Amino acid sequence: MIEKDEILGILEGYDKDNLTIATICSHSSLQIFDGARKEGFKTLGICIDKPPKLYDAYPLAKPDEFMVLDNYEHLLERCGELVEKNVILIPHGSLVEYLTPHKFVELRVPTFGNRLVLEWESDRDIERQWLEGAHIPMPIEIESPEKIDRPVIVKYHGAKGGRGFFIAKNKEEFYEKVNPGEKYTIQEFVLGTRYYLHYFYSPIKEDGYTLSKGTLQMLSIDRRIESNVDEIFKLGSLTELMEAGIVPTFVVTGNAPLVVRESLLPRIFEMGAQVVEKSIELFGGMVGAFCLETAITDNLEFRVFEISARIVAGTNPFVSGSPYADLISENLSTGRRIAQEIKMAAKLNRLNEIIS
Ligand code: AMP
Question: C-alpha angle with apex 294: 268 to 287, nearest 5 degrees?
C-alpha cells in the first residue's frame, strides 16, 4: 500500500483553489459529478474505450472532461496526469472492484477517505472483529453445517453482489445446496425488514451530532432491490420452488428510498457513532460516506450484516436530497456532501485529514 506520507507530499504540490473531482464513470458517478459541480469543482470522468454516451443524456452530471483508458489497470500508470490536474479521486464500490482492492491501494493520487479501511472490510472475519468490537449486533455466525439449528444464509467468499448466496432452512437443505469446493460463511438468516443506512462522518466538522472527534450525519436510507428473491414469492413458497429446482438469488438490480420509524433514529445514530469510534481506535478512522446494511426484527432490534466504508449505490435515489438530508440543507446528495467536505477541508488547510 502506498504510504500516506507520499500522498501528502503529492498534495503539497496541489493548487488547492483549483481542485478537480474525479471518479470512474459508473456506480454513483452521476451524483458525484453533479454534487462536485454544484460546489464549484471541475470534474473528470474515468472510462474505458470511449466516453459513455449516457452522460449526454444528463448534462448536469456530465464530467467536464474524460480520461479514456484501455482497461482499469492502466489507471495506475496514468496517476501522474491526474496529479497534474489536482485531482482528488472519489472511490466508489465499482472503482475498488474493477481495480481490485490490492491495486486500488497502490494508486499514487490523493483519494478521498482512509485507504486503511479496506483491510478491515475486505474480509468478512476481520469486518466482524471491527463491528462486534464496536458492540454492533450482527447475525449469529454458525461454525459448521452440523450446528445449523435455524434458517441460515450461506455466503460464498468473494461472491459479488450476493450472487451465489443461498438460504437453507435446516442442515439437510444446506447439504443439498452447498458447493463444497468453495469457501463459505454460514450466517443466521435474520427475519426482518431490510434498511440500508447511509451515514457521513466528518473528522473536521464541529457542529451537529458530535463524536469524540468530528460529527456524524445520517443522510438517507434505501432498500436494495434484489433479483430474483424480491419477486420470487409470486411463483410459490420457498419449499415449492426448491422442489421445482428454482433457487432465490440476491443480485442487486436497483434501489428504492425508505424512511424508518422515527423512534428508531436515536439507535441508528448510536450504531453509526459506535462504528466510527471503533474505526478511530483501530485504524485512524474511516472518513466520509459509509453504509450499514441492516435488518430490523419484529422486536425492533437491528442486526447489521455488512458495512461498506464508502459511497454506495443505495444513495442514488437521493440526488436532490432525502427526507433526512433535507433537514440539513437543500439538494444535498451524498456526492454533494463529499464535495462539501473537500471544499471545507481545502479552506481550512486540513485536506490531509480526509484523504489518503
Ligand atoms: P451482503 O453481500 O452481505 O450485503 O448480502 C447480500 C444480500 O443478502 C443482502 O442485501 C440481504 O438481502 C441478504 N442477506 C445478507 N445477510 C443476511 C442475513 N444474515 N439475513 C437475511 N438476509 C441477509
Answer: 60
